[in-house]
Amino acid sequence: METLEERFWEKVDRRGPDECWPWIAGHFSNGYGSFRGPHGKTVLAHRLAFELVKGPIPDGMDVLHDCDNPPCCNPVHLWPGTQLDNNVDCASKGRAVNPCGEMHGNAKLTWQKVREMRERYALGGVTQDALGREYGVVQSGVSFIVRDRAWKEVTNG
Questions:
Q1: At a CB cut-off of 8 Å and minimum separation 6, what does 56 contact?
Q2: Which pLDDT score, from 0 to 100, does residue 156 have?
Q3: Non-local CB neighbours of 80 within 8 Å, separated by 6+ positions
Q4: pLDDT digits (tens, 9 = 90+) for 32-82
Q5: Which tens digit of pLDDT belongs to each residue from 82-104?
Q6: Are the C-beta atoms of residues 56 and 103 closer than 8 Å to each other?
Q7: How far is Cα 60 from Cα 72, in angstroms, rounded to an integer?
Q8: C-alpha torsion 67→69→73→75, nearest 10
Q9: 105 or 29, which is more confident?
Q10: N or C: which end of the chain has fewer CB within 10 A?
Q11: Predicted local distance difference test score (pLDDT) of residue 104
């Protein structure tokens, strides 16, 4: 009778030590491989790969991929991290699910226009409402921008 470990690894295409090892069993959950593990419980394949090689996943932690390849089960590519770690990693690699700034599909402004708007408002003599009309955004949007509540990547000055 095969062990849990043997059953698991036969469903992984183990390639070179630094390559991705894709899950090949065909059972997926949101792009991640899934495996019926101990006691009939379904587990995500990359999490089980991590546990089999590196030990228990610390409480409250996720298992993140350096390779950004959800089916990958190569333990070298896997590391424990929080949801915040995952979000920072995602944003730093330009994979953010919710693009912001001018990368957002509904953006009416560019980074340059935001800088201009902030500089003009800081100098005085123009209202948020007037800037909004000029740049095609509502006054409340201008308020968020000039108070650094929106378009935070752009700094004044």
A1: none
A2: 46
A3: 50, 57, 58, 61, 62, 63, 64
A4: 999 988 788 899 999 999 999 999 999 989 999 999 899 999 999 999 998
A5: 888 887 887 777 776 666 677 66
A6: no
A7: 21
A8: 10
A9: 29
A10: N
A11: 67
According to the model, what pLDDT value does residue 11 have?
95
The 8-class DSSP code of residue 32 comes to: E
Contact 57, 50 (CB under 8 A): yes
**What residues contact 61, with CB distance under 8 A and at least 6 apart?**
80, 81, 82
Percentages helix, strand, coil for the chain (3-state, rounded to 5) are 40, 15, 45
Residue 128, both tokens: 């948020």
SS3 94: coil
pLDDT category at 138 given cuts 50, 70, 90 is very high
141 vs 155: CA distance, rounded Å: 17
Domains of the chain: 4-92 (3.90.75), 101-146 (no CATH)
Tokens of residue 64, six digits: 């993140």
Contact 109, 81 (CB under 8 A): no
